[in-house]
Amino acid sequence: MASNMKAVKLRMKSIESTRQITKAMEMVATSKLRKAKDRAELITPGFTVMRHTLRDIAEGNLDFSSVYTRNPGNDKACYIVIAGDRGMAGGYNNNLFKYVERKADGRDFSVLPIGKKAYEYYSKKGYDIVSDQLADSAEKSISECFEVSKSICDAYKEGKFGHFQLYYTEFQNMMNMVTRRIPLLPLEDFDKKKNPKSEIKSIIEYSPDEETVFDKIVPEYIAYVLYSGICESLASEYAARRNAMESATKNAEEMLDDLSLYYNRVRQAGITQEITEIISGANA
Q1: Which of 77, 102, 113, 183 gives the lowest tally of CB atoms within 10 Å of its CB?
Q2: How many whole angstroms from its chain centre is CA 203?
Q3: pLDDT tens, residue by residue, 152-170
């Protein structure tokens, strides 16, 4: 009896320590989530302006053509996958990896991983890793995104890859995070042959010409898309981790309640048995 009660007490102490850890991680994730959400909201206006500018150039010039909108004639694809740096976030990372494989549909592709979990997953799977310079952390600055964007555009123009796609997790609310795919290159949305929008030539004059201005803006536009995806992914990761830690904390509290009830019952039974033995001995 005594050994059983001691084991229960040790288990209760262990669960209590775990509950304190999960509660602390929940609070940290909540704090980081607010910052990530604010960062994602700040990037939206710049991204919107950049996209509208590109669309105005493409739609307002009848003879418009750009290397970034034309069919590259190369089927080799590179997927930029933004995952987390740590676990303890429920199915956040696994859901993203399954989504990528489902969309790839058996197609061969190279990977540019952002975040430790993405690098570890695709390295173990034997995929071609384009670069591991972004695998140290999923928290990238806008300047780092500009460097990545330039590398992507150079690789596309040199013909190393004919398609670039971005995979990330979009934050919608605390309980809803959705995996997304965004085609980066070629920019099919701005191809007039596929999407004829206007037949009137723009009165705006660009120097030196429309294609040069468009091609200069594209790397910055892609950098904004990457940074937006990183901010959304971070917010989603923190929300998923907060939810997972909140659930773990509740489960620990329920286990503590059950063990406390069991411990008190066993203790009460032991006391009752001792009293009975004393009374029986006195009567004897």
Answers
A1: 102
A2: 42
A3: 999 998 889 999 999 999 8
98-124: buried (b, 16+ CB within 10 Å) or exposed (e) per residue? Answer: ebbeeeeeeeebbbbbbbbbbbebbee
Residues 128, 162: Cα–Cα separation, whole Å = 16
| The amino acid at 28 | V
Average pLDDT over residues 69-75: 79
Query: What CA–CA distance (Å, rounded) separates 188 from 283?
Result: 96
**Residue 202: CB atoms within 10 Å:** 16
pTM for the structure as a whole:
0.81
Q: How far apart are CA 186 and CA 66, in angstroms?
A: 10
CA 110 from chain centre, in angstroms, equals 19
Residue 198 amino acid letter: S
196 contacts: CB under 8 Å, gap ≥ 6: none
